User: Which sequence fits this backbone?
């Protein structure tokens, strides 16, 4: 038996203590469209950003979390360390992120013939991979 999906994409929740910085990255720099904002239990807040058929949910708890994520991206710890956006304008997005002051952790690299990636770090240290297939 397998899971019976009702949607062909996933939604990603990113917990932060600095929503303004995260919205500046995901909404203003990457250009994800704000779908909405809502109250969460215990004085929290969620900001929902459209990412194709998925949502990137920026979540702020009313009470700060006990711990933050360890830095270092893929090599820094186990668990969810990055997610991938398949895009057609990789060069433009890397330049835009760099100009906005975000760290490019893996510069534009062809990993296989016709497949190019780059990775950028968001304000909380999460990595976002850009993937372009020619």
Assistant:
């Amino acid at each position: 038996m397998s899971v019976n999906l009702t949607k062909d994409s996933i939604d990603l929740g990113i917990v932060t203590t600095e929503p303004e910085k995260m919205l500046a990255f995901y909404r203003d720099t990457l250009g994800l469209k704000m779908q909405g904002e809502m109250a969460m239990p215990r004085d929290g807040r969620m900001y929902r950003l459209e990412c194709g058929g998925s949502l990137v949910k920026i979540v702020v708890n009313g009470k700060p979390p006990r711990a933050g994520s360890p830095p270092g991206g893929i090599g820094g710890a186990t668990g969810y360390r990055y997610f991938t956006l398949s895009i057609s304008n990789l060069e433009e997005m890397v330049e835009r992120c760099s100009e906005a002051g975000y760290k490019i952790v893996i510069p534009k690299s062809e990993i296989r013939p016709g497949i190019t990636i780059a990775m950028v770090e968001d304000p909380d240290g999460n990595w976002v991979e850009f993937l372009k297939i020619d």
The first strand starts at residue 11 and ends at 15. Residues 19-29 form the longest helix (11 residues). Helices lie at 19-29, 90-99. The chain has a mean pLDDT of 95.
